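Example protein was shown:

_____
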Amino acid sequence: MHDHPHAKPAANRSRNWAGPWPRTPARLAGTGLVRLYQLTLSGFVGNTCRHMPTCSEYAYEAIARHGLWAGGWLGLFRVLRCGPGGTHGIDNVPERLTADLAWWAPWRYWRVGKKRGGTVG
């Protein structure tokens, strides 16, 4: 096959986070469920997310970056923030989580997000 000298590299065609993450069984299962939702039910729910990235993209990235437990809680609380009276706008997944976000205290993950504390970086 002939490579054209002015050809552009192939663009990432996925709507989900493409950064490096450990492909552990739990993370693959979690991101797989989010992807299944995106391919099936998302079309019926409609394009009503008030944030960028969308709630499913946020959940995918949160699970990929922070694991199924922490990322799952982050994703759940993000969906809850998206409802009436909730936040809106750009709300990215934090690169790192603070030390007070322990596995045994999942309610603390509510603080992470737009206009809330709990993130570093």
Residues 110 and 116 are 9 Å apart (CA to CA). The beta strands are 51-52, 89-90, 96-97, 119-120. The chain is about 40% helix and 5% strand. The radius of gyration is 16 Å.
